[in-house]
Design brief:
alpha+beta, eight-stranded mixed sheet, 13 helices
């Protein structure tokens, strides 16, 4: 790791340590009536994998798709290096992403640094579509030892969260999680009736992904500092079944074989275009779905991750074909939003 990457972790640790005793005491109050040891709870939650959701078939700034670069380079890079994003296009000096990174990492990263943190989320519910399906139809699971070079935020860093910590000051995130349960009866994207129910879920010994979570908006965000090498740091790769039998599915199979990664298929999330309304994201989304179906779907009346990816690349190459729906920046947003729709309802 580079010195400023280590420094970022240390600065977050010092920030969290200031209230660590307070957070531990709060968790003790919650856990004591149920004979749950706080340290055991923290360790169990941190045994859940960090996942990195992404879209495998989008273009990077070198003209190749994400999965092609992963296969060729054997390394997962962040937006400041690749120019690829499934969120906002603000990874530049003075951009929103740059500004919030300077804030949450306490200016540890030099302005010109491109070896910045990579973003994932702690998959505490073991969702088979990853902890943050919003950001992509596929995901990596990281090996357990990577957790020690992660920092965490309760919530998306774009919202300027105050709860920041490291793996050894993780009481901060758990305290915020239980405060949310008490105030809003929810634990991330799940409705929770009580603290006892939350503890039962968090201490569930099952470590195998079970069901699709459709989690778009709530997460324990993880920032991975330092390099992510596929062979050394990645445990598994989960890919939407819509890619099976396609070029991208084949690339994934080759990548996983080359770097000794377990390949898993996520049940295909697919949505009938007539079931897509205009209220969930934007009025143009039903029209976009119809156009994707007419151009790439052979009129079968459905959209899925693979078809959305075809449209995304076509928009990058031939934006004039899609100008009836908006300009290139608008279309970028619509492509994200139609994926959100399929990820949630498909």
């Amino acid at each position: 790791m580079l010195h400023y990457q280590k420094d970022a972790i240390e600065r977050v640790r010092k920030y969290a340590e200031a209230k660590n005793e307070q957070h531990m005491a709060y968790l003790q109050e919650i856990c004591k009536p149920f004979n749950v040891d706080v340290c055991s709870l923290i360790n169990h939650v941190l045994s859940k994998p960090v996942t990195i959701n992404f879209q495998p078939d989008r273009f990077s700034n070198n003209g190749k798709t994400v999965i092609e670069n992963l296969l060729a380079q054997g390394q997962y890079h962040g937006q400041f290096r690749t120019g690829t994003t499934n969120g906002g296009k603000t990874a530049f000096i003075g951009g929103d992403r740059y500004l919030w990174e300077q804030r949450i990492f306490f200016d540890a990263y030099p302005p010109e640094a491109i070896d910045r943190p990579k973003y994932g989320a702690l998959n505490i519910f073991q969702y088979i579509d990853g902890a943050s399906a919003r950001f992509g139809s596929c995901f990596f699971t990281l090996k357990q030892d990577v957790i020690h070079r992660c920092t965490f935020a309760y919530g998306d860093s774009s919202t300027n969260p105050d709860t920041l910590c490291t793996s050894d000051t993780f009481a901060a995130v758990l305290a915020s999680l239980f405060k949310d349960i008490k105030s809003n009866c929810r634990m991330l994207n799940q409705v929770i009736a009580s603290e006892q129910e939350a503890l039962a879920i968090l201490l569930n010994p099952c470590n195998e992904p079970k069901h699709i979570g459709r989690n778009l908006d709530y997460c324990i965000e993880a920032h991975i500092h330092g390099d992510i090498f596929l062979e050394d740091d990645i445990d598994g790769f989960y890919m939407d079944q819509s890619f099976q039998g396609t070029f991208f599915g084949t690339q994934a199979e080759i990548m996983c074989q080359k770097y000794n990664i377990k390949l898993n298929w996520i049940p295909k999330r697919q949505l009938d275009i007539h079931c897509i309304g205009y209220l969930f994201r934007a009025p143009k989304i039903p029209l976009l779905a119809q156009k994707i179906d007419s151009i790439f779907g052979n009129g079968q009346g459905v959209v899925n991750a693979f078809l959305i990816g075809q449209a995304s690349r076509d928009i990058d190459l031939y934006p004039e074909k899609w100008a009836d729906l908006g300009n290139k920046d608008q279309l970028f947003q619509y492509i994200k939003q139609i994926w959100h729709t399929v990820a949630y309802f498909g």
